[in-house]
Task: inverse folding
């Protein structure tokens, strides 16, 4: 009888342990990988070829600049990830930081605002966001796209919104203007002059339309040819 009692007690203990183990398994959280789609873009003055890694996973070494993009899907469990960007030609580490991974589509921009500057990932501008239905844009004077066009020390620009002059500014080489705000659907135009002689140096009127973008953006002002000196600007998304 005593043996039977002990046997029953042992069996009960084993049964209880099995039940507890089973309950513990059922209570464990099942971790599932998440996927985010990331577009890495460049906006630089110098010409570079970059290699991008996230958590030491090589996403590619063909991110080109001055303007380029590299798109990749990233699987993750932990939302905090290590992002490293290398010069693909020299293997120099340019950016070493952490990012927060998210489900869905995200853009990470790598920016260089002046020649020789170390590229970086810009924070959100210290600037109030545009009002609902509006956008903000600023202008940067960069080196001519064509070597036959002079790179003046500075240019004077008449900034227009939908053909109405709103400001006259002088930009030095690689200098950025302040942000200008306007309603979606309107367009910016600009007339460009040599700041020293005030001779007009564009023979075209360039229009930047707001269709398809919002928030904060930067337009690169640069010289073009042939057919005479012309200064145009094109939108490049930084934020």
Result:
């Amino acid at each position: 009888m005593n043996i039977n009692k002990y046997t029953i007690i042992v069996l009960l203990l084993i049964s209880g342990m099995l039940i507890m183990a089973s309950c513990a398994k059922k209570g464990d959280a099942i971790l599932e990988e998440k996927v985010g789609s990331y577009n890495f873009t460049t906006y630089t003055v110098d010409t570079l070829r970059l290699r991008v890694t996230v958590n030491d996973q090589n996403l590619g070494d063909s991110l080109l600049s001055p303007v380029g993009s590299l798109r990749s899907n990233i699987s993750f469990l932990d939302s905090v990830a290590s992002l490293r960007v290398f010069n693909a030609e020299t293997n120099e580490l340019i950016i070493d930081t952490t990012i927060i991974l998210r489900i869905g589509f995200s853009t990470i921009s790598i920016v260089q605002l002046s020649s020789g500057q170390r590229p970086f990932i810009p924070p959100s501008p210290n600037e109030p966001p545009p009002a609902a239905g509006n956008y903000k844009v600023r202008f940067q004077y960069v080196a001519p796209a064509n070597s036959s066009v002079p790179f003046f020390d500075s240019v004077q620009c008449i900034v227009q919104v939908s053909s109405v002059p709103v400001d006259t500014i002088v930009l030095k080489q690689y200098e950025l203007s302040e942000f200008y705000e306007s309603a979606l659907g309107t367009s910016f135009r600009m007339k460009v002059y040599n700041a020293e002689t005030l001779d007009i140096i564009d023979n075209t009127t360039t229009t930047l339309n707001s269709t398809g973008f919002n928030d904060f953006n930067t337009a690169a002002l640069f010289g073009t040819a042939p057919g005479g000196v012309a200064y145009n600007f094109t939108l490049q998304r930084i934020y």
